[in-house]
Fold this protein.
Amino acid sequence: MTRSVTAAVVIEADGGSRGNPGPAAYGAVLRDAATGEVIAEDGSTLGVATNNVAEYQGLIAGLRLAQEFAPDAEIEVRMDSKLVVEQMSGNWKIKHPDMKPLAAEAARLAPRGTSYTWIPRERNSHADGLVNDALDGRRSGVRVPGEADDSAVEEAESPARGWSASVGAPTTLVLVRHGVTSHTVDKRFSGGLASSNPGLSDEGRAQVRSTAAWLAPIAERVDVVVASPVRRTAESAAIVGETLNRPVVEEPGFAEMEFGHWDGLTFAEVAERHRAEMDGWLGSLDVAPTGGESFRTVEKRVLDGLQRVLDAHAGRTVVVVSHVTPIKTLVAHVMGAPLEAVFRMELSPASVTVVAFYPDGKSSLRLYNAQPPENDAFSDPGRW
């Protein structure tokens, strides 16, 4: 794509939801401030979202266009959303939790001196039209005037089904399991927030640093690092966020399963002390240890968290730092497999799994349990 040498640009952005929340999309137009000529535009769907989320995503899309096509230009943003304009201008506080990470991402993308101007809706018709075109399936993604748009031809000619035939930018989750702790090494049950909550060991920190460095080439594509609030994931996410230079936000839905009074015990110790309870739990999705959670309970919590992330970061790439059970639960969900599939997966510490979710509801598994060479047990058969 050709970069502009324009000294100043204008971003016109909008977003909308049919249902609020409902099917949503955004539109963003990048113009030469002197001539009004369109440099690039983006109109894409978001899945299910609110109007405000869609408006913020329109702003972020416009700032990404400026970063790509006019990286050194001064920017004026024009929107008919009073909320976004006043919040980004610093005049109104950002109270809603869904808005905070979006505003933070917009602030990160906006160069110093970016100004925000409210305009009436009728003066924002181009961006509004992109929103409706995206929602009606007439367009998706970035277009540059004068460049051929082959997307419709490619879609018509493709015989594929499933995710490859989906329309719209996917939301990609790069799922990272935390590094090892003393409980990991000793094979002890280690749950979520109600557990003994051990931190990373020196080995665990080294594992996560290797994984974060391995992910560094995709840093520019990452919106945010989302972390389970458990200590070992919070510590892992801090390393990843620092390496990728991205903010870290918490999502409690991605915390590990609670093991109740089994927490901190080895499998053998639980079998000795709580044999009847363990017999009921093994192979069951609905039985929980005393004070703990069942797999079904965790599944609901994880999928609720997933929806919040999809709503807030639709069409973007998000690194999620989580645990064994939530990651395997997400993989089973993506594959349309029964939840029992979690019993047939292995997941290594500091490993990377990638899943994608499309606006039309389709999903795909792109990578599972991958590790940088220095962490990968399969590179050393003696560690199998």
About this structure: The chain is about 35% helix and 20% strand.
